[in-house]
C-alpha cells in the first residue's frame, strides 16, 4: 500500500521514465537498479531521458471492461520482452479486479525471474504482492507427462479396442500406446501440456472465476505449433475415427452373420477419441474467437524483429487467431541532450517505426509503444510500473 502510494506519487511528480528512481525510493532491487543506472548514465547518455514518446495507447479500458473470460497470448521473437509484458498485463488485470492466471508455455521459463518469486514446479502458485487473486503457472513437460499418464493410465490402443469389443482387429495396431502417439506427434510435449491446461481452465469449475488468462508464450515457432495443435489432433483423430468406423463396419458385417446386432449398436456410443476430438474443437474455437482470445505480438524496434513479427502475424491470420495489438518494446525515450549513440539508435528506431506503418501485415494493428526502462524489470512493483506505461 505504502509502496504503491509512493509509486503513484513518483509517477505523478516526474515526467521521467525512471524505474531507477522508483526502485531507489522503494528500496527493492536497489543494487540491480544501481548497476543498470550506472551503465546507462555512463555508456549511453548522461541526461535522464524524458517521456516524450509519441502516444501509443493500448486502449486498456477495452481490454478490462468485458466481464466474460478472455485469453491473452503474448508472443514474439526471443528476448523482446514477452514475459515482462505478459506479467505486467496479468498484474494490471488483477489490480483492476479480474481474478487472473498467468501461464508460461515457454520451456525456458522466466515468470519466476520476472515476478522475483518462486513460481516453479508446474503447479498454480499465488503471486504475492497483488491485491486481487493472481495465480502463476510455469508449465513443465515432465509434470504434465505424469498428469497425462495418470489420467489415461497405461492404456494401449489394443486395450482400448478390446474395451470396444474390437480386440480381434487390434492386432494390426500392435502395442501402439496412446502416450507414444502423443510423443510421436510433431508438436512437442510442451504444446500438448499447454493445450491440456487450457482444457482444464475451460472445463473445470475450479477455474471458472478466473476471468483473465494471460499466456507468456515461447518464441514464435513453438507458439505457432501450439496454436495449430488442436487442428493437428483433430485431423489425426479424424483419421483414427475413420479407421475405427471401417473396422466397426467390418465387425458389424461379421457379427450380424451371428445375429449379435444389439452389441454392435452399443459400439456407436461416443468413445474416448470422439470425446478428445470434441475437446480439441473446443480449444480450437476458443483460440479463434475474437470474444475469447487475443494474441498480442511483442517486438522491438529492429528490422529483424519487425520482419519476424510480420511473418508471425501472417501465420496467425492464416490460422484465424485474432490479433489487434502490437507492442514495440524497449523504445529509447527522447532525451534533452542526446549522446551520439542514443541519437543514432533513435534515428534507427524512427526508421523502423516507419517500416511498421508501411508493413501490410502490421500497419492495421494498434501500436503500443513501450519505453526502454533504465533497470531490469523484476518484482511486482516494477511490473506495475511497466504496466502503467504499456497498458493505458
Ligand atoms: N522495456 C524494457 N525496459 C528495460 N528492460 C526490459 C524491457 N523489456 C524487457 N526488459 C528486460 O529484457 C530482458 C528480457 O525480457 P523478457 O524475459 O521479458 O523477454 P522474453 O521475450 O520473454 O525473453 P525469452 O524469449 O527469453 O523468454 C529482461 O531482463 C527484462 O527485464
What would you say this structure looks like, in words?
The protein has 392 residues and is an alpha/beta fold. The protein has helices spanning 2-13, 19-26, 30-44, 60-65, 82-95, 111-115, 141-152, 157-163, 178-184, 189-203, 220-256, 261-266, 272-288, 303-318, 340-358, 380-390; strands spanning 70-76, 100-104, 125-126, 134-138, 212-216, 293-299, 323-331, 366-371. α14 (303-318) links the parallel β6 and β7 (323-331). 36% of the residues are buried. Adenosine-5'-triphosphate binds next to α5 and β7.
Order of helices and strands: HHHHEHEHEEHHHHEHHHEHEHEH
Provide the spatial order of strands within the biggest beta sheet. 3-4-2-5-1-6-7-8
Overall pLDDT: 74
* Multimerization status: single chain
Strands, helices and their partners?
Layout: H1 2-13, H2 19-26, H3 30-44, H4 60-65, E1 70-76, H5 82-95, E2 100-104, H6 111-115, E3 125-126, E4 134-138, H7 141-152, H8 157-163, H9 178-184, H10 189-203, E5 212-216, H11 220-256, H12 261-266, H13 272-288, E6 293-299, H14 303-318, E7 323-331, H15 340-358, E8 366-371, H16 380-390
Parallel strand pairs: 1-5, 1-6, 2-4, 2-5, 6-7, 7-8
Antiparallel strand pairs: 3-4
Helix pairs in contact: 1-2, 2-3, 5-16, 10-11, 10-13, 11-13
Bound molecules: adenosine-5'-triphosphate.
Coiled coil: 266-293
Keywords: ATP-binding, Coiled coil, Hydrolase, Nucleotide-binding, Transit peptide
InterPro entries: ArsA/GET3_ATPase-like, ATPase_ArsA/GET3, P-loop_NTPase
